[in-house]
Design a protein that fits this description.
The chain has about 190 residues and is mainly alpha-helical. The chain has 2 domains: about 1-95 and about 110-155, no CATH class; about 155-190, no CATH class. The protein is about 65% helix and about 5% strand. A two-stranded antiparallel sheet has the order 1-2. The two termini are about 45 Å apart.
Length: about 190
């Protein structure tokens, strides 16, 4: 179930397209334009910016169909609100979650943020590059949170794991044996 909704752009009752704020679109738009320029272009009704967002977020057929509509003024009026609502999702903002907490981390450039999301999706989550690029930034973050919760449920918190971990290079084999038996008894009960 995608976290970021598809944005539907209706030009008229017979013509509409769906746009999806996927990671691939976010990376490409940020690399070419940068988010401040995208925001400014949407506010100013720049057909160049609006069409770039549509080309990246919609299927090729839908984008070609919609961008061929004339007069351009009608098209700009229909695209601007949709592009305005998709831009925060491209930047990784999940509109479904209220942002009640102030960030305590240092600001990160979008390019670095998107690279980190790709690493998380393909590394930690085990997705293929195609799956990572097709997911939205919010989906990647939620999948990572779910995986973290799963690992914590299985293995406990990092503090608990560190306190029960055997030493890497024990002084003698008897100490390793005793520690292993103690850990097994702890996990299985006194039956071990």
């Amino acid at each position: 179930m995608p976290l970021a909704d598809h944005i539907v752009v209706e030009i008229d009752p017979l013509q509409s397209i769906e746009m999806r704020p996927c990671l691939r679109a976010a990376i490409r738009l940020e690399r070419i334009w940068g988010f401040p320029k995208l925001q400014r272009g949407i506010q100013e009704g720049s057909f160049l910016i609006l069409s770039a967002i549509v080309r990246e977020c919609a299927s090729k057929d839908d984008a070609a169909q919609i961008l061929a509509i004339r007069p351009v003024g009608k098209l700009i009026n229909a695209l601007a609100p949709a592009c305005q609502s998709i831009l925060p999702a491209l930047a990784g903002h999940d509109a479904a979650k209220p942002d009640n907490t102030a960030s305590t981390g240092k600001p990160v450039p979008f390019a670095e943020y998107f690279t980190t999301l790709f690493k998380i999706a393909t590394g930690s989550n085990g997705w293929t590059p195609a799956e990572a690029y097709a997911a939205t930034p919010a989906e990647i973050v939620e999948a990572m949170n779910g995986r973290t919760e799963l690992l914590q449920a299985i293995f406990g918190s990092a503090d608990k794991i560190n306190e029960t971990r055997l030493p890497l290079y024990p002084a003698d084999d008897a100490a390793v044996h005793r520690a292993g038996i103690a850990r097994l008894r702890e996990l299985l009960g006194s039956a071990a």
